[in-house]
Amino acid sequence: MPATTPATIPASLQIHASDTVGVALRALDAGAQVLGVCLLQAVPQGHKFALRDLAAGEVVVKYGQPIGRTRVAVRAGEHVHSHNLATALAGELAYRSGARAGQAPEEVAGIAAGAAWTWRGYRRADGRAATRNEIWILPTVGCVALSAQQVARQASERHGAAIAAGRIDGIFAFEHPHGCSQLGDDLAGTRALLAGLAANPNAAGVLLLGLGCESNQLDALVAQVPDAARSKLRVLSSQAVGDELAAAGRLIDELVAEAQRAEREELGLDALCIGLKCGGSDGFSGLTANPLLGRLCDRVTAAGGRAILTEIPEIFGAEEPLLERSVSPEVFERAAALVNGFKRYYLDQGLPVSENPSPGNLAGGITTLEEKSLGAVQKAGTAPLCDVLAYGEQARVDGLSLLEAPGNDAVSSSALAASGATLVLFTTGRGTPLGFAVPCLKVASNAALAQAKPHWIDFDASLALREGAARADAQFLARLLAFASGERTCAERGGQRAVAIWKRGVTL
């Protein structure tokens, strides 16, 4: 990855003409002359500085949108951060349907060339396409999670030749601690997530491994798996057989024999279903990595593919422009209810809706949730909002869908996989090694992270600052399609594969 030097990118940036703050693209010293102001203080990389004098209580604007209010008067050239900027978020809002509601999705200008881009994937019987041809073992309950791992290890050794030859892409067990002593919505959430994962196209075959006495009974779980995916299921209750490991092994052998018949074929962008995720954001996330994903989202959805946006608490303060992109009043109302429902979820726990950003976000230059959200929603580009999905629900229409899930990296990425994403595109300014059930393509917002963690990062989005958005977009799409076609991501090569279930209720 090319190095970033002061000579290759500008020192600072005003993102929108109406912004009252600029962003330092590298660490700036007091006295530096940037964007027509003299800095009165040193400003760390990714952080903000005032472009003009701001009165106490004045709205601060970045991305052309409010990101909070000043705590005190701020002079032009001062560092703007948590010491002098505060959120303006409160509680639920009464959203009004925008002009776009009820209109058909519009063409995205300049994306027609996307039809020429292809990748090689597995076409499943239900018409969806997979980026991997794997066998998954999903335990119904934490009591058999380690057994599931044991079954996966033994089966991987037994079928090592098939894996090495590429006839299957691996055998994986996804452990979790839930499924017992759960009630009501909490149990329903566990079941929804596991049923959704079982339906993911990347799983050519699935063993649902139960204990027998758990709350999350196998029959109820199977009933929630979409009809089209049930033919690839095998089911085993450990308490109902003698040697459960041997019995599970025989079922895995059946699934492997069937999966080996699948072959990759050439597919277009319309066959992609991508999950959009950001984690450990910094001041560059909204400048490089998230806009990169947004342009990719526009390209994929314009071609007839699917994109899923989630992390609902991380659109607070930026939801109104997103809601205005709804294709119908019904989609608008469902999306607005989802956002307000999440706010109520916070308020009912006695927590403010603005309990964000994280310490890592703050260190990276993000001050308020509005600022974080305005950068985060850029992952969804300008595509029309076509559908709203409940946690664990399958994506069912082409275009952009909004999915119910929190911001936690593992929980939201698992939710994306359970809704049918066969690739998760994960932007980060701080970095993480963690990978998920489906391939997770890590996109660094800054070159320093990409250079420090090449074993974590698959693409350096700061290329857009050095060489322009068009070049970055073309290189990113080429890399994405290579990963979709079978090249392993850093997380896959590192053996980082995990799922996490959203725990919301009482444990008995």
TrEMBL record:
It holds the Pfam family SAF. Gene3D superfamilies: 2.30.130.110. The keyword Lyase applies. Residues 19-86 form the SAF domain. CDD domains: SAF_AH_GD. The keyword Lyase applies. It comes from the Bacteria. SMART domains: SAF (SM00858). Keywords: Lyase. Belongs to the UxaA family. This is Altronate dehydratase family protein. It comes from Novosphingobium organovorum.
